[in-house]
Amino acid sequence: MEPRVILGKKAFSFRSFFLQWEWMLVLLFIAVNVMNVNLSEFYWNFGNLRDATMSFLDKAFIVLPMVFVIILGDIDISVGSIVALSSVIMADLYNHGLPMPLAMVVCLAVGTLCGWINGLLIVKFKELSAVIVTLSTMIIYRGVAYILLKDQAAGKFPEWFNFLGWDYIGGIPFILIAFAVFAAAFWYLLHKTTFGRRVYAMGSNLTASRFSGVRTDRIKIVVFTLAGLMSAVTALFLTSRMGSTRPNIAAGYELDVIAMVVLGGISTAGGKGRMIGAILAVFLIGYLRYGLGLVNVSAQTLLIIIGLLLIVAVAIPKLKLGRASARRRA
Amino acid sequence: MRERGGHTAVAAVGEALGAAAPNKSLSANIARFREVGLLVFIVLLSVGVQLRNPSFLTWENLNDIAMNTAILSILAVGMMLVIITRGIDLSIGATLALSGMIAALTVKEYPGASPAVALLIGIGIGLVCGALLGLLVAKANILPIIATLGMMNVFRGLTYEASGGKWVSAHQMPADFKAIATGSLLGVNHLIFIAIVIYIAAYYFIAHTRTGRQVYAVGSNPESAEVSGIRSGRILWLVYTIMGGLAGLAGVLWVSKFASAQGDTASGYELSVIAACVLGGVSIAGGSGKISGILLGSVLLGILNNALPMINVSPFWQNWIQGMIILVAVLVNALVKRGIDRNHLMRRRI
Predict the structure, then answer these.
(1) Which residue of chain B has the CA closest to A320?
(2) pLDDT, averaged across chain B
C-alpha cells in the first residue's frame, strides 16, 4: 500500500493524506487491538491471533467482488445463499460418488452460474433494482439447497479436503495465503486495469459511461458473476472448516460482507472507495469479533454491534458531506 | 387527456389488431385487470386444491386461512407504503419479534394486566423502531436497504437480550392475552376484525387524505414533490413509523396467536410480506400500488401456504416456490410497465 501509488498524480500533501478514511480504519484497528489486549490476557498471542484469522477469513473472499458491486452503486444480497447452494451441491455430488476434485469444480461452476443469472436479470430488467432481483434469487438459491438436502447435514469429505480450512504453509494459514493472492488480484483489477476504471466510471455516472462507449451491460454481468464465483470459493473454505454442510450454512453472510465493504469506506451511492479500505475493514471486524468473543460477549450482542457499526459507517460520511455542501451553499 | 390523441396511424393499426380491447397492448390490459387476474388465479388454485383434497374448502379451513392471512396482510399495508416511496424494509421481522417478545414478557411479569396494555406496548415499541429507521432514512439519507439490514440485526439482537435467549411459552401467558387472537367480536375473529379495520383506515388514508396522496407523489417523483412544497423527509419518516407501528401490532397478534414468543420469531417473514406486495402489483420503482392489490396478494400467499401442505408438497419446496413467485411477479410487473410506456408513446400526438 504505497500511498503515492494510490494518490496517483495529485500533489502530495500531508493533510489530505492523513485525512483519508483508510487512516481512520488503521487507527480504529489499533484501538480495537489495544482494547482487546486490555480485555483479555489471551488475546496478544501469535498462535491465537493466527488461528483467529483462519476463522473469520472465509467470508472475506466475498468482500473483494462486493467492493466492485457496491462501487457500481448496486448491491448483492444473494451471496450467502450462493455459498449455501454451491456447498450443498458439492457435498451432495460427492456423497453420490463424484470424485472430490470434480465436485469442487462443480461447486465453483454453480457459484459462477448463480452470479451470472443475477447479472443477466439485472441487466435485462433495468427497471428493477439489484436489491429486488438478488432478494428473490437469495430465496430461490437457498430454496434449491433445501430441496436437495432437506434439513440434513452432508459431509464425510476426504481427509485432504481439511487442508483448505485448517492447514498451514510454513506456519502461515493456507486460507490467509489464498486471501492475500485473491486480494492482490482484485486490487490490481480495480485500480490498475481499464476494467476497474470503467467500474468506477459506471458507478459515478452510468448513462455517461454508456454514451462514452463503455459496455456497461457486459461489465455489470462480469461483476455479478465474479461475486458468484467468489461466493463459491468461500463455500469451499467454509465447508472445509466445518467438515460438513447444511442448507442453512452461511445465513446472514450478506450483512457481514456488506458491513465490511461499507465500513471500508466504499460509498453505497457508487463510484467511490478503495480496495485497501475493505481489506482493512475485514481484519478490523474480524479481530473485534474475536476479542469480544474471548471475553464471552454473546453472539447476539455481536449482532447488535455489527448492525450499529454498519449504520454508523454509512452515516458518518453523509454527515460530513452534508456539512460541506451546506458551507458551499452559504 | 391523451385519449383524444389516439387517431394516429399507429393507433389505428392497434385498433385493427386488438378487437376486444382497441388501442391497448396485451400488457396494458394485464395492468388494468391485474386484480381480476389474481382473483381468477386464486379461484383456479382453490378449485385445483379442492379436487385433490376435499377438506380444503371447508368452513374451518377457510377461517384458518383468513386468520393466517390477517397478520401478513396487516404488514403488507405498511410495506406497500414503504415501497411506494421507493424504499424497502427488511427489518420488520425483527421489529415484530422484538415487540412481541416485550409484550409477552410484560404479561408474564404482570398476569393481571389487560390485553390492551400488551397491545399498546407492542405498538409503542414498533413505533419507536420505525421512527428510528425513518430518521436514518429521511434525515441521515442512508439507503433503506442498508439502514434496515443494519437495524434488523440490532432489533433481533435486542430480542435475544430482552429474553435472555429463553422462550415465553403458552403456560406463562394469561388466558386473556391469548384471547386477543382466539376471541371474536360480532362473530368475526379478532385478527380478521383488526385487519379489516386497518384496511379501511389505510384505504381512507391513501385515497382521501392529503398526506396519503403525498406518499404517492414522493414515490413517483421525489424532485418534483420537493419542488411542489411536499416535505418528503417527513413523509419518509411517517411511512417508516407507520410500518414500525403495524409491525409492533402484528408482533403482539403473532405471539398471542402462536402462544409463544421466541428469539427467532418471524425470522425471514419480511420476504413473504414483500412477496405479497409485488404480487399485488406494488411497483418496486415506487409511486404505484393499490390496497385491493396487496389484499389479493396476501390472500394468494395465504392460500398457497395453506394449500401446499394439503396436497403433499414437501415443506422444503416452499422457500423455492416463494422465491420464484416473487421473481416472476416482479418480472411480469416490469414487462407490464414496459407495455404501458410503449402504449403511451404510441398514443402521443406527434
Answers:
(1) B140
(2) 83
